[in-house]
Amino acid sequence: QVRLVESGGGLVQPGGSLILSCIASGFSLDNYAVGWFRQAPGKEREGVGCINRSGTTNYADSVKGRFTISRDNAKNTVSLQMNSLKLEDTAVYYCYARYYQGYWGQGTQVTVSS
């Protein structure tokens, strides 16, 4: 019954925007810190950014100023707003929520291409 599901990925042109959602069911996400990670083909999974229970965020240098993480406790959702997308942002994006236990989502593909 406990699930964490990402949505919102797709194909976008360089300079475009996408918003990804991390939606929890079976537990209350407001108790959890949530991180966003991504993995490109042939590369290691890397951290993108995270948000704590109070809404404080931090970001990797590669996305700072372009990406924004926010949470909506009423909707049991954490979002990743991605602006000014670059080719190197192409990856599968995952969310990870942790309180006393941790849960991974299944990932959603983001492809930035002309």
Question: What overall geometry do the principal axes of the alpha carbons give?
Answer: globular
Oligomer: single chain
Report how far the terminal alpha carbons are from each other. Answer: 40 Å
User: What structural class results from the helix and strand content?
Assistant: mainly beta
Number of helices: 0
Spans of at least 5 consecutive residues with low confidence: none
Largest sheet: 7 strands, mixed
Look at the structure and give the mean pLDDT.
97
CA-based gyration radius: 13 Å
What fraction strand? Answer: over 45%
Counting DSSP E segments of at least 2 residues, the number of strands comes to 11
* Element-level helix/strand string: EEEEEEEEEEE
Proportion in helices = under 10%
Key phrases:
114 residues; single chain; globular
Describe the structure.
With 114 residues, this protein is mostly beta strands. It contains no helices and 11 strands. Strands 2, 4, 5, 6, 9, 10 and 11 form a 7-stranded mixed β-sheet that branches. A hairpin with a 5-residue loop joins strand 5 and strand 6. The termini are far apart. The mean pLDDT is 97.
